[in-house]
Amino acid sequence: MMLRWMVSNWLRQTAQEQLRSVVTGAMHGESEAGAEDSSEPLPPVDVAVVFALSVESGGFVDLLKERVTTRCHSHTEHRGQLNGRHVLVAESGVGRNAAHAVTADVIGLYQPNWVISAGFAGALQPELKRGHILMAEEVVDVTGKKLSIGLTVDRASIEASPALHVGRLLTVDQLIRTRSQKEQLGTEHAALACDMETLAIAEACQPAGTKFMSVRIISDSMDDELPKEIESLLSQDSLVGKLGAATGAIFHRPSSVKDMWKLKEDALKATDRLARFLTGVIDQLPPP
Questions:
Q1: Over the stretch 52-99, which tens digit does the pLDDT of each residue have?
Q2: Residue 211: other Cβ atoms inside 10 A
Q3: N or C: which end of the chain has fewer CB within 10 A?
Q4: Is 55 in contact with 274 (CB distance < 8 Å)?
Q5: Which residues contact 174 (CB under 8 A, 6 or more apart)?
C-alpha cells in the first residue's frame, strides 16, 4: 500500500482517478479503438476486476485480448478476452467511496458473475513479504465492521506455497507509514495485511448477490517504511503544492529521486506477478 501511494503521488498519475466514478458515462466515453456506438449493446462480462490505480492493473490489462479501453468522466475501464472469458477491468481511484461507487455501477451496468478486488496491500504481519499474495477469507475495518467472503481453499496447497496466504484483510482510510503502525493494526485486528478499498467493494456486491473475491499482492513488508519527507508530499492537495514538496524533498535529500525510481521498478514487478496469479485464479472460476 505504501508503494502504491509513493508511486502514484510522486509521478503524479491521474488525479482524476480519485474522484467519484460514474460508470454509465462509459457508453459515451472515448475509446482507444475509436468512439463507441452507444446504441449497440454492451458485451457480456463474466468477471469484473476492480483496481484502484493503473500502476496496479497494468500487468493484468496487458494480458487482455481484443482490448477496448474507455476513459470515462473520472475512471478508466478496459474490456477484453482472457483465455476465452469476457473480463472487465475498472480503475476506480483510491479509497472506499470511489471503489464502492464504481463497483456498484459496474454491477448495475454489466451484471458480472464475479467481482474481484485486486491490487497492492501492505503487510501487517512479519511472515508476509514483498511479492507474496493474500487471498482474503474475511475483510474488516478499524470500526469493527466485518464481512466473511466464504473463500474455500485447499489448505494443503496453501501450506505448500509459502508465498501464498489466506486470512483476514483490513481496509483502512489513511496511509500506514511506519512499522509501529503496522504492528498495532495487525495486533488489534488480527489482520494479515491492509488496503484501502476491499471492504467497500465487497459491500457493493451484497445487494445484487454478486460473487466476490479479493486477491492482493504485498507491495511493502513490515520493515518497509515511508521516508519522512514524503509525508509533506502526500499532504498537499494541489499539483502546485505537490511539486513544491517534491522539490523540497529533492533539495534536502537528492537520493530520494533514486528511491522513487526503485519503487517504480518494484511496482512493475508486483503488477506483473499479480497479473499472472489473477489469470490462474480466473481460469479456475466456474463458468457462467
A1: 988 899 999 999 999 999 887 768 899 999 999 999 999 998 889 999
A2: 16
A3: C
A4: no
A5: none
Could you give the CA distance from residue 87 to residue 78 in angstroms, rounded to a whole number?
8
Q: What domains can be seen in the chain, in order of their start residue?
A: 2-284 (3.40.50.1580)
DSSP annotation of 58 reads H
CB 190 within 8 A of CB 183: no
The span from the first CA to the last CA of the chain, in angstroms, equals: 33
> Is the pTM above the cut of 0.90?
no
d(CA 171, CA 164): 19
How many CB atoms are located within 10 Å of the residue 67 CB?
A: 18
Distances (CA, A) of 199 to 52, 80, 166, 203, 212: 13, 26, 16, 6, 11
Judge whether 9 and 57 are in contact, CB under 8 Å.
Answer: no
What is the spatial distance between Cα 193 and Cα 170, in angstroms, rounded to a whole number?
6
Give the whole-angstrom CA distance, residue 274 versus residue 133: 8
Residue 48 cell numbers, joined: 469484473
The angle that helices 256-284 and 54-61 make with each other, rounded to 10 degrees, is 50
CA distances from 3 to 202, 204, 231, 244 (A): 23, 26, 13, 21
Cell (9 digits) for 231: 509525508
